[in-house]
Design a protein that fits this description.
The chain is α+β, with helices and mostly antiparallel strands and 141 residues long. It is 33% helix and 16% strand. The protein has helices at residues 21-29, 67-85, 94-102, 117-125; strands at residues 2-8, 13-18, 43-45, 88-91, 111-113. It starts with a strand and ends in a 16-residue tail after the last helix. It comes from Pseudaminobacter salicylatoxidans. This is DUF1178 family protein.
Length: 141
């Protein structure tokens, strides 16, 4: 993922994450990129310094969001917390345990844990219903 410094026609500055420059250009043409402050779709890449890793702790990245987006994030976080509170944590055995539940080898119950991308693809191929839980910045502290 590439982080671009962006600005709109009203000189509001913000960041956006994209897979590539082509991804940014495609989304911009489809009017999927807009300013989080004023909603303008006239967005351009701004000059930016390259990111150089110095080994020091990275600064936290701020996200400019509207009141409606903040409320949606708060609801998403509350839902994620509720799912965790009402499920068993199975750690890195998530894929194995999810398959056992799916195929009736163990009691059906809510679980959460970690899975690699390869394990997640395997679960999807096997028809196992699951979904990723969002990780919020303060979940990592």
């Amino acid at each position: 993922m590439i982080s671009f410094s962006l600005s709109c026609e009203n000189d509001h500055e913000f960041e956006g994450w994209f897979r590539s420059n082509d991804d940014f250009e495609t989304q911009k043409k489809r009017k999927l990129v807009n300013c989080p402050v004023c909603g303008s779709h006239k967005v351009e890449k701004a000059l930016m310094a390259p990111a150089v890793s110095t080994g020091r702790r990275q600064e936290k990245i701020a996200l400019a969001v509207s009141a409606q987006q903040r409320e949606a994030l708060a609801q998403l976080k509350a839902l994620s917390e509720k799912v965790r509170e009402n499920s068993d944590y199975v750690g890195d055995k998530f894929a194995e345990e999810a398959r056992k539940i799916h195929f009736g080898e163990t009691e059906a119950r809510g679980i959460y844990g970690e899975a690699t991308l390869e394990e997640a693809k395997g679960l999807a191929d096997d028809g196992v219903d699951f979904m990723p839980l969002p990780v919020f910045p303060d979940d990592r502290n």
